[in-house]
Design a protein that fits this description.
Layout lengths: L1 E4 L5 H8 L17 H8 L3 E7 L2 E10 L3 E8 L8 H14 L5 E6 L4 H7 L4 E5 L5 E6 L1
Antiparallel strand pairs: 1-2, 2-3, 3-4, 5-7, 6-7
Amino acid sequence: MEFLKLEPKHIKEVYDIRLSVNENRVHAHQIQYLQREQVIEDISQDGGWICRINNGFVGYGLGIHIPHALIGGLFIRPEYQGRGIGSEILERITDWFFNGNDDQIELTTDKGSIASGFYAARGWVQEGEDEFGQLIMRKRK
């Protein structure tokens, strides 16, 4: 298992992984964030990691500033969930933010999802819903 900095050359793998998940599927309001130019711009902020096992990429996560600190995505192929990949990527992104000038990080996820429990178990706090009905969660330094 190897964790690499996410780079624009990984865009194909990002799409493959993102579209492989069973929960937190792409919502209509999120399609704009999957446009190639936007993905490259977000990756270029340098807050992302991707996990490779053998010759395949199995998960990625991306921290971005919009302008506040945001987990722009953390997705693991379903068959690789529960192996610590998401935890490792989340820790790397969290450290990236907190070692910079950020004192809190936000994310959104589907209510009642496995992901919401994953984040809560790692100290993220639910703080309401966004205008699309997704759960807002925050972690403070």
